[in-house]
Design goal:
Blueprint: H1 13-22, E1 26-31, H2 34-49, E2 54-59, E3 73-77, E4 86-88, H3 95-105, H4 112-121, H5 128-136, H6 152-157, H7 170-176, E5 184-185, E6 188-189, H8 196-211, H9 219-223, H10 239-252, H11 254-262, E7 264-268, E8 271-275, H12 283-293, E9 299-304, E10 307-312, H13 318-327, E11 331-335, E12 338-342, H14 347-357
Parallel strand pairs: 1-2, 1-3, 3-4, 8-9
Antiparallel strand pairs: 5-6, 7-8, 9-10, 10-12, 11-12
Helix pairs in contact: 1-3, 2-3, 2-4, 2-10, 2-11, 3-4, 4-5, 4-10, 10-11, 13-14
């Protein structure tokens, strides 16, 4: 076992990959951080690609982790754990970097944007293998600010990457952004319509409002860099916005975080599907978050074994859900543009039934 907290004792990627190959069932026990959540997702996807059974849990303390299921190999992600068979503590580098290297050793093609979001969530200067992979795949930084949505008002008002006078106040955020020459709507400022000049102005505004006061300590100048010049890639508007969401849900709603980091997605005409690889995923919360921040389609379906939830744009789902559930002898309930289904068939069969109903 790896029972020590010293970073230099972390096992090599090839060693961990070898143990993962030999394990019949793997438990990933992650720390409640965005970096550990992203790393767990990278490892889980690599295991799924090999059809290797696994379980993920996140917890603030090692003693809080769910260990009720026997596993051939327990891997602590993001911190040392003397009760685990193997620890990936991070420290010298973000644990997402380590997970990315392990996934490659397993022969997987790891999700670069997810790993990059983990590195950004770790709060240090982005570099190393993940940054090189991002550059190789065309992921670049641009001017502007890192938020998960195209709506700058909503993104900045609720960002946990910065603490500014307008934080938590959408009206104050809108007033601060009022000088930007871009299209605006009743809900906020459309960041996707900003030109290069306005992106730079937005970044300068956020930086000045965040660290321009004398009461802000010098470390604030370094911390605010997390929200500036974001990478543009992945399922959210920016990689930094993705990192913000991962870190928030890892700490406040770990079950939802696991579902988001571990989900596989598919896009169809008018429908976006997020399929969780973990059992008992919180599909209702997952459907809402995926619909709000990831789905390019008007209807979003989140599905796991035996259960699914749906969110739509201003569409009554009662008829759709009734038809889909009826096709697989399931049970459905809808409330306007949201709904939930229980079923006993495999998830692929239900997705097919739902697609036909839509």
């Amino acid at each position: 076992m790896s029972a020590t907290a010293r970073t230099e004792d972390a096992p090599a990627a090839g060693e961990v990959a070898g143990r993962l190959r030999e394990a019949g069932f793997v438990r990933l026990v992650g720390a409640a951080t965005g970096d550990a959540l992203a790393a767990s997702g990278v490892l889980a996807r690599a295991l799924a690609a090999r059809d290797s059974p696994f379980q993920i849990s996140l917890a603030p303390f090692p003693t809080d982790a769910d260990r009720s299921t026997d596993a051939d190999l327990t891997v602590a992600v993001g911190r040392p754990d003397p009760t685990a068979d193997c620890s990936l503590p991070g420290g010298a580098e973000p644990v997402s970097e380590t997970a990315f290297a392990i996934a490659r050793e397993l022969g997987a093609d790891p999700d670069v944007s997810l790993a990059l979001a983990g590195v950004v969530a770790d709060g240090r200067e982005v570099g190393g293998t993940v940054a090189e992979a991002a550059e190789a795949t065309g992921i670049e930084r641009r001017s502007g600010v890192a938020v998960p949505t195209t709506d700058l008002v909503d993104g900045l008002a609720h960002s946990t990457l910065v603490h500014a006078p307008f934080s938590g106040d959408a009206e104050a955020t809108a007033a601060a952004l009022a000088s930007l020459e871009t299209d605006s709507t009743e809900s906020g400022v459309d960041g996707s319509a900003l030109d290069e000049q306005d992106r730079r102005r937005a970044a300068s505004l956020v930086a000045l409002r965040t660290v321009g006061h004398d009461a802000v300590p010098s470390r604030g100048g370094h911390a605010v860099e997390r929200v500036l010049r974001p990478y543009e890639a992945g399922p959210f508007a920016t990689v930094g916005g993705h990192a913000d969401v991962l870190d928030a849900v890892a700490r406040e709603a770990p079950g939802t975080g696991v579902a988001l980091a571990d989900a596989t997605t598919g896009r169809y005409d008018g429908l976006f599907v997020a399929r969780a690889e973990t059992e008992d995923a919180p599909v209702e919360t997952m459907a809402r978050l995926v619909h709000d921040y990831r789905s390019p389609e008007p209807v979003t379906l989140a599905v796991t074994d035996g259960a699914a939830a749906v969110v739509a744009d201003e569409r009554d789902l009662e008829s759709v859900l009734s038809t889909a559930a009826g096709g697989v002898d399931g049970t459905a309930a809808a409330t306007g543009s949201t709904g939930r289904v229980r079923f006993d068939v495999d998830t692929a069969a239900f997705i097919t039934a739902f697609r036909e109903a839509v």
